[in-house]
Amino acid sequence: MKKKSFLLILGLIAAAALFAGGNKQTQPAGASAQTTAPAQNETIVIGGWPAGDTAFNAIIPMFNEQNPNIEVKIGNFMPSADYHNELQASIAAGTGAPDVAMLEQVYVGMYKDASGFENLLNAPYNAGSMKKDFADYKWDLATSVDGKNLVGLVWDIGPASLFYNSEVFAQVGLPTDPDAVYKYLSTWDGFLDAAKKVYIKDKRWLVCSAADLYGWNFMNRDFYDQNLNLMLDKAGAVDALNAAITMRKNGWDAQVGLWDNEAYAGIGNGSIVTVVAGC
């Protein structure tokens, strides 16, 4: 008998979803949740990683205006990898998982066909009514293979943007106006020229890693087409790979991962000049 929770995937939509976490009953997997808000006072716990706790704290007062009998507590918010390890252990043990759990989308496939989580298609959630408000590929991400179970609401479609250090761009003679930057960096020749201009050996680089240039081709896209053909050499990918090779040969990348502490420090102190990430 597992205490059932639901996953709020990348969950900053808690104001709409926390009501679902009010069910504190222990139920067998697959059981329907209660159909009305609890008449008695209830406490629900949210888990995740920073800065989700900051966002949740900001919206809890709005949630409590509509649900004054539900106390929302911020549980263990820790680095993403540690949090997901603890969440998996809690699910396996059948105890200890938060009522509302943030889940990074890369982990969704581990849970959407498993038991132990509320099916948000059931009452009182009735999440199917919101399907039209979600991008199809994100909705499908949290839906079981048979289409009968939904474990989370995926709100983040992660449109990518390039963020750049305008002060450094100005120092080396690169454009700083967003439209001009877009035009300048829209070809690999322009991108590599910018990398050469900002580069200072062992001190400053354009990007975290040359490998990112190739990876950008697959942001929010699969490596396979609908017929399961591998698309590693799709249009544009080979050009991006050649640009990445040129950048690495010249030492124009910092050779660190975007989520590494070294990258955080480099972006903060201006030694890494651009970042491409979800906006």
Describe the overall structure:
By secondary structure, this protein is α/β, with parallel strands linked by helices. It has helices spanning 14-17, 52-66, 80-93, 136-141, 166-171, 178-184, 188-198, 211-215, 237-249, 261-269; strands at 6-9, 42-48, 70-77, 100-103, 160-164, 274-278. The chain has ten helices and six strands, in the order βαβαβαβαβααααααβ. A four-stranded parallel beta sheet has the order 1-4-2-3, with helices on both faces. The chain has a two-stranded antiparallel sheet with strand order 5-6. Helix 2 links the parallel strand 2 (42-48) and strand 3. Helix 7 (188-198) packs parallel to helix 9 (237-249). It is elongated. The model is unreliable at 1-35 (pLDDT under 50).
In DSSP terms (H or I, runs of 4 or more residues), the helix count works out at: 10
Q: For the report, how would you describe the main beta sheet?
A: 4 strands, parallel
CATH class of the largest domain: Alpha Beta
Give the fraction of residues assigned to helices.
25-40%
- Could you state the order of secondary-structure elements as H and E? EHEHEHEHEHHHHHHE
Structural class, judged by helices and strands?
alpha/beta
Which strand order does the major sheet show? Answer: 1-4-2-3
The overall average pLDDT, rounded, is 84
- State the CATH architecture of the largest domain: 3-Layer(aba) Sandwich
Question: Would you give the CATH topology of the largest domain?
Answer: D-Maltodextrin-Binding Protein, domain 2
Distance between the termini: 41 Å
The geometry reads as: elongated
Radius of gyration: 22 Å
Give the uncertain stretches in residue-range form.
1-35
